[in-house]
Amino acid sequence: xxxxxxxxxxxxxxxxxxxxxxxxxxxxxxxxxxxxxxxxxxxxxxxxxxxxxxxxxxxxxxxxxxxxxxxxxxxxxxxxxxxxxxxxxxxxxxxxxxxxxxxxxxxxxxxxxxxxxxxxxxxxxxxxxxxxxxxxxxxxxxxxxxxxxxxxxxxxxxxxxxxxxxxxxxxxxxxxxxxxxxxxxxxxxxxxxxxxxxxxxxxxxxxxxxxxxxxxxxxxxxxxxxxxxxxxxxxxxxxxxxxxxxxxxxxxxxxxxxxxxxxxxxxxxxxxxxxxxxxxxx
Amino acid sequence: xxxxxxxxxxxxxxxxxxxxxxxxxxxxxxxxxxxxxxxxxxxxxxxxxxxxxxxxxxxxxxxxxxxxxxxxxxxxxxxxxxxxxxxxxxxxxxxxxxxxxxxxxxxxxxxxxxxxxxxxxxxxxxxxxxxxxxxxxxxxxxxxxxxxxxxxxxxxxxxxxxxxxxxxxxxxxxxxxxxxxxxxxxxxxxxxxxxxxxxxxxxxxxxxxxxxxxxxxxxxxxxxxxxxxxxxxxxxxxxxxxxxxxxxxxxxxxxxxxxxxxxxxxxxxxxxxxxxxxxxxxxxxxxxxxxxxxxxxxxxx
Lengths: 282, 301
Fold this sequence. Notes:
- By secondary structure, chain A is mainly alpha-helical.
- Chain A has 2 domains: 12-64, no CATH class; 73-281, MetI-like (MetI-like fold, Orthogonal Bundle).
- Chain A is 74% helix and 0% strand.
- With 301 residues, chain B is an all-alpha fold.
- Chain B has 2 domains: 1-43, no CATH class; 61-296, Orthogonal Bundle (MetI-like fold).
- Chain B is built from 13 helices and no strands.
């Protein structure tokens, strides 16, 4: 006891300082989480309880989820989002790396020009390209197809820039040694260089998958059929038509949110690291 | 230089491989990024109604109409308001919580994850949750105000409060990203700097003003630019949180991108909308140039 109180007296500002810090962090944490709790609580309330004053449901029910699934093809939207985000991410992982590798590890005429050209496309906002993309898609019958949703994002300038930076860290001597061993140029990229930039590649994939999974502006324009919507687009239309049936809207929002939350809880360390890495390199 | 059977040097053969690797990506950037940029600019010079085959040349008429359109000016002003409100709020709150997290080391991983949750979840879902939170008569926020004895607020239904209410939701969702980037910036500052200053008798506020802030300068510049460009392009939150998705009430929340979206995909005036996108492009270009100026002039400490 004596030792404890002594040490407390020795550093009083530190102890109270820590208490204030944790108190503020907890208040912040509550503010971050409470909208999700409210969403879930509402989604479990029978319609008769929604406009009562209680925060948590008195008689919790899963009926709202059932009702949403009967009204709209939520499972199909899931499948669409998954296909679009997965395929786009695979394509980005391959082509952004290949481009970054070529720009980092080869000497050829026009190299700088090509790099600056690719980077300069970053300055043009997506909104400016959406009208030409839509006219193009309309003419080529890409409306309401997976390719139509995906094509603007299958290669990204940002990813090229990121991967180029990381491939520059791969020693050229290593590649030359592999060449002597008879590895093909594509083999150099695929089997020698790619495994060395895995952290960057993982970060790019996470960043890209999240971006495509949550994308709204382009998918809302290129999809017209109910069955071709992605989760965010479907949810937006459903909620817009649900009027004040907040219990149904919150059930829909929960269905859109919960799987992402579960994935995040499992991989939060990698996801946060990845976002920090891509954010800093950008 | 060693010549191969086909009479090409090693360097030339490698260069050919590089061109092969770049063939598909380069075609992509030319057809899907570069050509559409030029096309958007040219579309802005026509009356381009997607439903009619007649697309007459307009010259700069679309721009004249645009600059005479009060709704365009309102959405431009709103967009600048989104920037002016959200960017400083995100920077200050992001830095505040990053400093707290750095000081409260024991639960850092846990709180970091907690603050980051909104950033990874769907903006559409979150917008609807906030819309329900703001609900004028039955929403929990007004219930809370009632408990505190404060008058009921209209939030999204009031032309004076709607934009600020949306900004709160935007800042809430983006906060985790700012915290993470600030934390990475803070961790990059060498500990010796603080130790040395403490020996010289510096107080916490001095440390923050004379070491932390100047050394965080690159991070602050980066986040300011990212935040500004994101806020200029605000769309999803406005479409999902404003009444009937029209940027109301009374256009008080309508952003430039929502204005463009409505012109192009609700009224099908592609030419007119394209003129709007060219203005948006100009805005972002100006910010990028300012960013380049600032970052190249950056002082090394």
